[in-house]
Amino acid sequence: MIYFQETAHFIRLSQHTYARVYRFTSLPDTSLTHKMSQLTITTKNMINRPVHTTLAAWPLAIIRALKAQDIDPAPLFEQVGLSVAQFKDNPDGRVDVRRMTQFWQLVEQATGNAAFGLEVAKYVQPMHFRALGLLMLTADNLEQAIQKLAQYHAMVSNSANIELHYTPEHIQFAIQPIPSVDISPLAIDSFLATLHQLALQLTSNPKLINKVTLQRSGEPYPERWQNGFGCAVEFKQTHNALWFDRQQVAKSDLMGDKKMAAYNESIVQSYVQDLTDKTVSQHVVHYIFSQLEKSEPTVTGAAQHLKLTERSLRRRLEEEGNQFRGLLQDCKVQLAKQYLKDTQLPITDIALRLGFADHSNFTRAFSKLTGQSPSAFRKKHLL
């Protein structure tokens, strides 16, 4: 299954101007709700891990930026279930984007600075992106380095899509968050500022970027972004993007070490494949959780979500030792466990919420998979 797709097409910008658009996308796995995200699905061939994650380089950079302002990051991390030690002990690790979004909100409150993402970027270096940073450093030119970052952006974070828009005057590097994923504006600021900073380090050319566009508001101090990026910044726009000057980019030759670039690209490809390689069963489970409580998930809906025929989907699930009906039942029971443990909802309400016809149908299904009735399960976990 293809998890990264590169497409090129032309869009009309005005009567005489067309732009060539390259789109590098991660398949938009629908994120789970807060309750659903905590579930452990134990079906065959499945790996339990957050869908959308980012490199530990970001929290490590935030730690340094906060300490530079005499702010202790430890209490902020603790509020979202993280710790400073876990990142220092495992700098190559990854962190759930949902927790990072919560953490960024606390950082903004602690600093009183909505533009603090620009400060964090000062503490991020190419080597923090591991092999991807090295791949960019060994590219032939800046345009190629930008293309590699767009192509393998999931290594940094798989919570957004990257688009490269080409016009006669500009290369627009645009970040589009996946609709179902909540990303802090500070995180987007930090990523764009990091790329801007990296481009300056590689080329020593302050004229590379003509402007920056952001979806966020710059109120009440827009000059913080303008000073941080060193160019015009437009707020409340349709894209979060850096607008590179094509003529300036064309002058930016880099190291051009093809042997080292090929070596690092192979490492990056392996990393991204491992990060994104999920079974069809996993994708079906994520689809089911995204639909539960809205409507009854169906095999037809799952097939459409995965861009497969129903016949192909059933066959792929069978090859993995699963069936849609079984996965659906498993997901319902796992979510039911969460409700039984964490809420006081009546069992009948839980049954109806999860699409069971009545209390007795729910009880039979739950008992079959867990070996105990819903009421017995709740009583056991309330002790």
Please describe what this structure looks like.
The chain is α+β, with helices and mostly antiparallel strands and 383 residues long. It has two domains: 4-274, no CATH class; 280-382, Arc Repressor Mutant, subunit A (Orthogonal Bundle). 49% of the residues lie in helices and 14% in strands. The chain has helices spanning 57-68, 74-79, 84-89, 97-111, 116-121, 131-137, 142-151, 185-203, 223-229, 246-250, 258-276, 280-291, 299-305, 310-319, 324-342, 347-353, 359-370, 374-382; strands at 4-12, 18-26, 53-55, 94-96, 160-166, 170-177, 209-213, 232-234, 240-245. The strands form two sheets. It has a seven-stranded mixed β-sheet. Helix 9 links the parallel strand 7 and strand 8. Helix 6 (131-137) packs antiparallel against helix 11 (258-276), helix 12 (280-291) packs across helix 15 and helix 15 packs across helix 17. The longest helix has 19 residues, at 185-203. The relative contact order is 0.12. The model is unreliable at 1-50 (pLDDT under 50).
